[in-house]
């Protein structure tokens, strides 16, 4: 599979999106991660919906701490050009004292296949399935 200018393969299968997302997250590069979002995507972090530059700024701040993510798809439903993914995730962030802060959750992710055949986030809600 050919790589893109981001260095990752185009995500042409919805089930592959989470693996590429984790690799982009773990790279620490917010631009790699944002390439996996539609331009009009909404991210709901800590109860606040974000798009555009505020989302990029929040991601850059999160990634600057050097967190590492693991994730698995718990449940998926795909129809035509839309996909709903329930994802179990864990993020470990190194702390100054050498320990790691661990966070985990169950995300609700909505993906859309664009005209170019690539799947991208349109809704990203890391704690959406925990209610």
UniProtKB/TrEMBL annotation:
Top-level taxon in the UniProt lineage: Bacteria
UniProt-listed InterPro entries: NTF2-like_dom_sf, SnoaL-like, Steroid_delta5-4_isomerase
Residue intervals of the SnoaL-like domain: 21-121
CDD domains registered for this protein in UniProt: NTF2_like (cd00531)
NCBIfam families: SgcJ/EcaC family oxidoreductase
Name used for this protein in its record: Uncharacterized protein (TIGR02246 family)
